[in-house]
Design brief:
Distance between the termini: 18 Å
GO biological process, one term: regulation of DNA-templated transcription
Number of strands: 13
GO molecular function, one term: phosphorelay response regulator activity
Strand order of the largest sheet: 2-1-3-6-7
GO cellular component, one term: protein-DNA complex
Largest sheet: 5 strands, parallel
Protein name: Stage 0 sporulation protein A homolog
Helix content: 40-55%
CATH architecture of the largest domain: 3-Layer(aba) Sandwich
Keywords: DNA-binding, Phosphoprotein, Transcription, Transcription regulation, Two-component regulatory system
Radius of gyration: 20 Å
Number of helices: 8
């Protein structure tokens, strides 16, 4: 998952960037409001960590921009713990608030807690890829880092076949059975290869090194551990 981190204290920022990347997150680091705005234009984020006091403004400004664009989780980082700042941040749509100094474990725990609340698995939502991929089975829609991904009917059916058998190695014949005739067309072994390639191109951060749909050499494919 890609996280926007806006923190003006470069020592704290570098330590957080290093530690969060070791936890498996991709971090885009900014030190002020201006660079934060630029990053929001150029990237799609799954979560934002915003310092409140910045050299050219406040994290509240970025919070408003983010929430106006789309609904993604926001956690404020601040040295201030007075009630006014807490209430203001939450009223603007922030999901949590952590006061400096804090332990990395506490921050990671807060991040995971917020993501669980945001993407609560209620039977109609499936979460994959370190919380970056969300499948809403009621709407038949797939989202990556909060943005909808357009899949064809066959691609969606194939993805569901994978996730409904999460953790299991599926042979090519089992996968073909899962998408058989969904669009009124015969799907052969070569076509299956093409569809898996297309799904990876749409969902994986690096399709050449897939982490969601994994190849199990000589056996087939699987999603999850």
């Amino acid at each position: 998952m890609k996280i926007l981190l806006v923190e003006d204290d470069k020592t704290i920022a570098s330590a957080l960037e290093y530690s969060l990347e070791k936890e498996g997150f991709t971090i885009v680091l900014c030190h002020d409001v201006a660079s934060g705005k630029k990053a929001l234009i150029e990237n799609e984020f799954g979560l934002c960590l915003l310092d409140i006091s910045l050299p050219d403004g406040t994290g509240y400004e970025l919070c408003k921009i983010i929430k106006d664009k789309r609904d993604i989780p926001i956690i404020f980082l601040t040295a201030c713990d007075d009630e006014v700042n807490v209430v203001m941040g939450l009223d603007m749509g922030a999901d949590d608030y952590i006061t400096k100094p804090f332990r990395l474990r506490e921050l990671v725990s807060r991040i995971k807690s917020v993501l669980r609340r945001y993407h609560k698995e209620d039977g109609s939502t499936i979460i994959l890829g370190n919380n970056s991929l969300r499948i809403n089975t009621l709407e038949a829609k797939v989202y990556k880092d909060g943005e909808e991904v357009n899949l064809t009917a066959l691609e969606y059916r194939l993805l569901l076949t994978f996730v409904k058998n999460k953790g299991q190695v599926l042979s090519r014949s089992q996968l073909l059975e899962g998408i058989w005739d969904v669009a009124g067309d015969f799907v052969n072994d070569n076509t299956l290869t093409v569809y898996i390639k297309r799904i990876r191109e749409k969902l994986e951060d690096d399709p050449q090194k897939p982490t969601i749909i994994k190849t199990v050499r000589g056996l087939g494919y699987k999603v999850g551990d």
